[in-house]
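step 4 of 6: structure.
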Amino acid sequence: MKLYSTLDREIVKIEPNKKGVITMYNCGPTVYFRMHLGNIRAYVNWDILHRALLYLGYKVERVMNITDVGHMTSQDDFGDDFGTDKMDRQAEREGLQPIDIANKYIDTVLDDYRKLNILAPNGKEIPAGMNFETVSEYGWTRATEYIEEMIEIVKKMEGRGYTYETKQAIYFDVTKVPDYNIFTGQDLSEKKIGVREEVGVDPEKRNPADFVLWMKKVGKYEDHIMNWSSPWGDGFPGWHIECSAMGTAILGESFDIHTGGIDHIPVHHSNERAQNIGAFGHPVVKYWIHNEWLVNKDNEKLSKSKGADTLPEVLELGYEAMDVRYLFLSVNYRAKMNFSIDALDGARNSRLALLKKIKELGSKVGKVLPAYVELFKKDLENNLNMSGVLALINELLKSDQKDEDKLATILDFDKVLALNLDSILNEEKGNGQVMDDRLDELLEKRLEAKRQKDYALADSVRDEIKELGYLVSDTPEGQVVSKI
Ligand SMILES: [Zn+2]
């Protein structure tokens, strides 16, 4: 397997610590809001990676955290929300306890994952009706269940001289890690700009980039609802420490892959790496792999504060979860993805067209074609070249192989794609019919547009029909479609 390693700044061959086994940690969801599609893109990407590794014959030991405490702002510990953390604030808003907020949103995460065929970290499918109570059995780690491990790892850093204590918190001293800024190449002194307010909040803080490991239940945090006792007094963990603590508690002091969004690079992952060095004397993680953003038309990151769409909102518009999965897997994790209704329409059309072609192969399942499996593996190993995979499937469909073998091979590929491609075989009114309905709908829409003399709309509908695999032309008898 080759992936883009952020620290190496190039695509590298993944050489696991233990032959045939990949250990992987994924920065997981923060559970005080419904995940937006920008979050979900990452989890679809890492699901593809997990499934690809399994397909390639690796054993995968994987952990994903759930941040259910201590998440203040993404940038710093005393940011604009100083005084309440987001979990507390949302709890107050909804009239619930913070832990109930966390549980409520864990359930929504599981629901989204299950609809999108995202495997649990332990490699199992998420069963219908699963809720927060069993997440740890499926390989998720909740921050609130690893407080002891966090305290232990902070003690390690303390023992090695990487921390200092103020009246308000225990900090990590970033100047103790000479290559703290290895990810960004930024000079530490540059970070001083724009963080004066933060320094003002805790006058004892030494360097602007120092970050909280343990926040004491004092001052503005006196009423913090979730808190635990520690050698430094009652309080709660800073939000970077959970990943170092849980990753090493479960995967050991050295593991292969750590994933996250590119927005994690400058702060969260820089801090995590520094903590690992502070606690263990070495960086722990071999390959840091990051996914790009989902962007809207203005090329801005699609985020909660920008009012981005959630999966339920998209489903309400009439799309299926598999349209979203198709869209997300068709673009490499390293590329920024434009998200729009047009993009979703395109994915939907391509997916339905694929299902229709599969339906035409009949229902007899033959042999998996080894030559195509080899090509498939090559694409997966090539930095998850999923557009290559989709092209390969089309090539296979056009080839003169037996239909039953084409079908067997495509269904085999679906172990990684997880697009429910077999559903077409079992349905009474299959997606082939759905596809025909969609074509009728578009033809009607085009006709209406022409009646209204809205030629721009008529043209764009014609393009949509083309994406489904049909050409439409006008004849004296009306619209005629032909297969491309
Ligand atoms: Zn993390």
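step 5 of 6: annotate
 - Residues 2-291 form a domain with the Rossmann fold fold (CATH 3.40.50.620).
 - Confidence is low (pLDDT under 50) at residues 72-83, 192-200, 303-308.
step 6 of 6: archive
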